[in-house]
Amino acid sequence: MAAFKRNLTAHAFLIGALLCFSIFSWYPMVREFILAFQKTENGETVWAGWSNLTYIFNDPAFWQAWRNTLLFTGLALLLGFAVPFAVALVLNEFRHGRGYLRLLVYLPVMLPPVASVLLFKYFYDPGYGLFNRILESVGLPGQAWLQDTDTAMISVVIAATWMNMGGATLIYLAALQSIPGELYEAAELDGAGILRRIWHVTIPQTRLILSLMLLLQIIATMQVFVEPFLLTGGAGPEGATLTVVHLIYQYAFTFNNYGSAAALGLVLLVLLAGFSAAYARLSRAGSED
Question: Cross-referenced PROSITE patterns, in alphabetical order (predicted)?
Answer without folding.
Answer: ABC_TM1 (PS50928)
